[in-house]
Amino acid sequence: MTAPAPLPPEEVLARVSTVPDPELPMVTLADLGVVRAVERAADGALEVVITPTFLGCPAMPAIERALREVLAACGHPQGRVRQVLAPAWTSDWISAEGRRKLAGHGIVPPGPASAPLPVRLGLGLPCPHCGSVATWPQSPFGATRCQAVLVCTACQETFAHLKAM
Amino acid sequence: MSSTDTAAYALRLGDDALVLAQRLCAWVTRAPTIEEDLALSNIALDLIGHARTLLAHSGALDGTGRTEDQLAYLRTEREFRNALLLELPNGDFAVTLARQLAYSLYARLLYGELAASADEVLAGFAVRAAKEVEYHAMHATGWTVRLARGTAESRRRMRAGLETVWPYTGELFEEDALTRRLAAAGTGVNPAGIRESWEKAVTAVLADAELAVPAPSWQASGGREGLHTEAFGALVAELQSVHRQFPGGTW
């Protein structure tokens, strides 16, 4: 079997953009804003540039492995994944499409990261179960590092909120 | 700015985060509520993330090429550079929360300033870490006030927790030759320079809690030179036990 012909960077970007997030598989790495670019390094190898959502995110090794597989499938077996910390990831980078998908799975998407703290914590966000806005932040620490838990005072159910930060 | 200095600095900050994370992990399944179990373990995970970033940076700069794992799992007790506050035994929930209050308010100020570091990795790290630490500060602040203004017993314990950890807070703000060189080069933060803001922040929280700021008659020191408390040996042994029993093991 012959190796596939190497695809140009913009086509590789389109392919890596479709890789799902390992912890939130309803959204892609591009939806989350984790994939920043596909660039050619000085040595000619293609690099996928990513910014972790949370520092030392435990999903990073799985993400890097998945991206290297895509690089190889695009004809770039020598391709690399490069993490950049600056500019730091912010929840504002999550795309409109990403927000729609999160909401569709019962995870309330974040508001602006620059909003005052009570708004960022999710005060008054509509409950995904009953639609009531009589909701309250229960704990800023949830099932993953990027999620908080809110509680609805109308239907008494809890729900997940992706932290605005 | 010598890269050796930056490596030594990243090691100090990274060890602070790593050692506190190890302490907080001991609360898993022992916290007062399930939400609190999640909160303390999430905070520990954030801190492990900080430690990984900082130790990896330190190992890349110190000339030895050690990985974050080699630094965390293969150094001896005397090679750790964390402040003593972070290695204190957990005590009861109030002691742990008093330590969280002191450290998270300090870390929020430290990372806020470190975001302007001339070192690109430290700066990028700090911007992100400051946002994570803001939640830790909120958590500690909320509990401090809640316990202090709860029952007579919770108030007694919160006050005792603060008295226990306070002699260890001064070390966070100690200057030495390394911090002076780093601050002069714009790579690191002068720890003494954030002390006043920290005291203001702490005083505001304790005023809300209707508690006095402790005024200890002594101050602990030595962690930055590798001189640790008696409890630290057992912490390091537990932290490194799996790695030392199964060298190179992967899962």
Automatic annotation (TrEMBL), chain A:
Residues in PaaD zinc beta ribbon domain copies: 125-163
Signal sequence bounds: none
InterPro entries found in the cross-reference section: Fe-S_Maturation_MIP18, FSCA_dom_sf, MIP18-like, PaaD-like, Zn_ribbon_PaaD
Residue ranges occupied by any MIP18 family-like domain in the UniProt entry: 10-73
Organism domain of life: Bacteria
NCBIfam families: PA_CoA_Oxy4
Protein name: 1,2-phenylacetyl-CoA epoxidase subunit PaaD
Organism: Streptomyces orinoci
TrEMBL record, chain B:
Gene Ontology MF term list: phenylacetyl-CoA 1,2-epoxidase activity
One Pfam assignment: PaaA_PaaC
An example Gene Ontology CC term for this record: cytosol
Broad EC category: oxidoreductase
Superkingdom per UniProt: Bacteria
Keywords, sorted A to Z: Oxidoreductase
Entry's EC annotation: 1.14.13.149
SUPFAM superfamilies: Ferritin-like
Single biological process term from Gene Ontology: phenylacetate catabolic process
UniProt xrefs under InterPro entries: Aromatic_CoA_ox/epox, Ferritin-like, Ferritin-like_SF, PaaA_PaaC, PaaC
Listed name of the protein: 1,2-phenylacetyl-CoA epoxidase subunit PaaC
Biological source species: Streptomyces orinoci
